[in-house]
Every structure is written in structure tokens, then in C-alpha cells.
């Protein structure tokens, strides 16, 4: 009997629909999860991270088995991870860490100012873990940058520098890892990450690329709406961090594109709702969170070409079948990005000796549309001020070329962010979520520009599983306006 069947027999209503608030049932289930009584380690997180009241009760009871009193935050997180595998969808894993943060604060109420402060540090450690121990290229985050990125987020004040240094050194010296099931330990690394989705492993693909960081994974919502679909030709112009794509990998390829939720799927064959995505389709998937689409004005070899710059500063060109189709894709991508992109993790850009872009979470925003608009407006005001201050102190001509490059990199970043938030603010002022459900003809008064989407849902949602892990590296030098690279 599988663990899900066992659970259904014990709490037939509780887990399936979350309507029961039976504390005793929650205690029984929590105890069995903790003791791994006919459950695997990989089963635990999905029962703690569901978005219903019973699952919250189970999580609260489960965390009571952990006494973090007197332990540092990093020690507590490592202790917590020894009990289970933090696997599952991004939203589920994030909820588990929220429960952890609440329990740690309960056990140590005088260590950190609030539960939000604990959760912020927990997120920061997860991000740092990926930055220091991931397989991404580029320089690693320094302790000074880690401290600077967390300025002012502890109830409006700074965390203790000694605390942040201790957390940084802990993660640097020992990678955060969680427990795995015995059968997973026996597999080779490739088997653990590259299994194909077949009849016996129907959920494997959704785990591919899911490593130590639930906040940078491409979010997967099987019930997400499909906002646009159609044929597009794609050309990769720049890889992660704006690094120029090698010439042999820049060729044009045609795909059937489906913008579903915050993910742009690029499939080799025309979309069919009943057909699962292949591993190649998933490999080509692009998250549009914090992205910006615009006309590729500097590319003249083909007509109807749009440029998409992603959160991790990849640059992709797409050719549509007509000017109207090109504009439609620009509008819809930017609208999805404006409505659903979660606020970035704080980064004190001006205080860092070496410029480093902040990390942008792939999770969907939890803000209301009004709060989302205020958040975008606040970021736009902040970026505009920083750009003005930055340009008021240009580097002396006598300084080293490296310092001039740093200045240009930061200038390009701030200019791009200013444009991106201007587009997002304009979209939300036009209606945001309402525009996602309107047809092009209904979205009257919208200009045909990259900042004015007129969206309508196309066809029914895809029900395939998502893989892919996108981490927003921060430090490679991208294409800059001052060193303009003609797209070839």
C-alpha cells in the first residue's frame, strides 16, 4: 500500500480537500510523518506544504517535534533538513520554510526581531547556498555583498553584522543539504536528476533541475492559464549574465510557443492539451518573471523580431509571423511579468564596492494588484534616484579600465531596470489582471507599444509537468549600450 493510500484511509477528507480541522487527526499524521511510519522522507514536504487548513495543522504539529531553543538559525535549518527531503513544487517548499521560520521564532523569541525577519534570513541562506555551491559560472557572492543585500530588512533596521557573518561562513564552509531516501542514495547523480517521465515515474520531470533553492526554480502551476500560443522562431543571442552566445549556437529554430502562467514553453510540435511535454521541450522552457520584451530595433536581418531579456539576463530573439503577432507577444509577456513577478530580494546596490545584481525570485507574487503597483512604483522611484546619483559621479578618466567597466555595467543595469519598471507600472495602471482576461479588441485605448498589453487567453491550459532551474546570477558583464553589440 502506497503512502498516499495510507493517508487517504486515515484522513479521507482532511488531506484531499482541506475541509477538516481535526487537531487529533493532524497530530496522528504529524507523528507518523516524523517517525516515517510507512512514509518516505520525500513524502513529508508535500503533506506539510499544501495550501489548506489541515495541512497547516499538520505542519504545526510536525514542527513541535523540533526544539530549536538556543540553536543558531543555520544549525536549526540543518537539523530540520536531516528529517526529510525538501522536494515538491516551489510554492509547497516555500510554505514548509515558512512553518520552519515560525517554529524557530517561537523557540527563540529574543534572537531575531520578528517571524518575518527569521523567514527573510532563511530565504537569504537558501539563496546564498545556491550562489556559493551551485554550478553556475561567475564570481561567488562575498560576505560584504551578503550583508549589504540584507540592509534594512529586519523590521526596518539592519541585522547584526556578526550574525550575518556567522551565517555566511557557515553556508560557505558547509553546503546546506537535506536527507534523501535510501533508494535515492543508491542512484547515480544522473539517474537522480535525469529520469524520464514514464508510466512508473509520472512526477519525475517536475523534479529535474530542482536543487537546493526553491525560490529560483521556475514555478509550476498545472492549472495556470494559457495567455498566448503560436509559432515563433527563436535565436539565442546571449546566455546567462549577458555572456555572448557562441556563434555556432546562435542559429534560428522554429517552435510552437505556449505562454502558460509565467513560463514560455517552446515545443517542437503544435500544442495538444493531452500531450505531455518532452524533456527537450522542458529544457527550452523560459521563465518570464522579471523579464522585459521589446522590439529588436537593432536587428535588421529579419522582420517582426522581438527581444526578450530574462531575469538572469539571457537575451533571446523571437520572430513572429506578422507585426501584429510580434506586438501581441510583447504585450502578453510584459503583462504576465508585471502582474506576477514577486518583489526582488533587497540589494543595497550603492553600498557595494563591486556591483552585483540582486537575486530575483521566481515565485509568484503574493501581493494584491494594488500592492503590486505600489511595489513597482517604489522600485521605479528607487532605481530612478540611484541612476541619477550614479550618473552625477562619473569615473575619472585616469582610473583603471576595470573601474570604468564596473561603472558602465551598473549604469546599464539601472537604465534597464528603470525601463522595466516603467513598463510594469504602466501595465498595472491600465488594469493588469483585467487585461489578462480581455481580448485585443476589448482592451481599448492601449497604445501598440511594449508597455501596453492587450491580452486574451488562448485555448485551454496545458497540464504537463515543468522542470528547469533558473538561478539569477548577478555579476557577469552583459551587453551594454556603451559597447553596443550588433546582433548577428
UniProtKB/TrEMBL annotation:
Keywords: Cell membrane, Membrane. Residues 3-174 form the SEC7 domain. It comes from the Eukaryota. Residues 13-23, 201-213 have a biased composition (Polar residues). PROSITE patterns: PH_DOMAIN, SEC7. Residues 225-338 form the PH domain. SUPFAM superfamilies: PH domain-like (SSF50729), Sec7 domain (SSF48425). Residues 1-12, 181-198, 469-479 have a biased composition (Basic and acidic residues). Residues 451-461 have a biased composition (Low complexity). SMART domains: PH, Sec7. Coiled coil: none annotated. Pfam families: PH_9 (PF15410), Sec7 (PF01369). Residues 1-23, 181-213, 438-488 are annotated as: Disordered. It is found in: Cell projection, Ruffle membrane. PANTHER family: GUANYL-NUCLEOTIDE EXCHANGE FACTOR, PH AND SEC7 DOMAIN-CONTAINING PROTEIN 3. This is PH and SEC7 domain-containing protein 3 isoform X2. It comes from Ceratotherium simum simum (Southern white rhinoceros). The lineage of its organism: Eukaryota, Metazoa, Chordata, Craniata, Vertebrata.
